[in-house]
Specification:
The protein has about 160 residues and is of the alpha+beta class. About 25% of the residues lie in helices and about 25% in strands.
């Protein structure tokens, strides 16, 4: 548990559906107006939807977001350390989030993985060579970051990845 730092504004745009909310009446919507920045509650709902879309086993999940500090707080219980780390990364690698307050509990504690921030020019093979001494171990990193990564080339500078022991 603790606070994890991320680079705000560099993460992926959150495209996961938010939890259902009431829409404003059509008369109040203006089609030519620039979309307003989402509220803290809307961002929290989107983060919650994003975590749920990953299909990771978690019970008692709740997410809050503080827009003035760009801090997302995640609570709940997971079965494994790997699931805990994936949830932290899923939230932290979203563009509005600069910090994640991890308040998740793990039913079966295990050693923590290392976290690595992707730099320009990095590939999973290059990262694998750095950590394991063998570029061909890139699939170990890819599998450790599924379902966050859809394919091995789906990394970007500033993204934080799990590097398993």
């Amino acid at each position: 548990m603790g606070i994890f730092d991320f680079v705000k504004g560099i993460g992926k745009k959150n495209t996961a559906p938010a939890e259902p909310q009431q829409q404003a009446p059509a008369a109040q919507q203006t089609p030519t107006a620039k979309p307003a920045e989402p509220s803290a509650q809307q961002i929290a709902d989107q983060l919650l939807g994003h975590i749920k879309s990953l299909g990771l086993p978690i019970s008692g999940l709740s997410v809050t977001y503080n827009g003035s500090t760009d801090l997302a707080t995640v609570k709940g219980q997971v079965q494994s350390q790997a699931d805990r780390e994936k949830i932290i990364l899923a939230v932290g690698n979203i563009d509005h989030v600069a910090k994640v307050d991890d308040q998740l509990t793990v039913a079966n504690p295990e050693p923590e993985s290392k976290f690595y921030t992707v730099k320009s020019g990095d590939t999973l093979s290059k990262i694998s060579k750095e950590f394991y001494g063998d570029a061909n171990q890139y699939n170990k990193i890819f599998q450790a970051n599924r379902p966050l990564l859809k394919n091995a080339d789906d990394i970007f500078p500033g993204q934080v990845l799990r590097i398993p022991n």
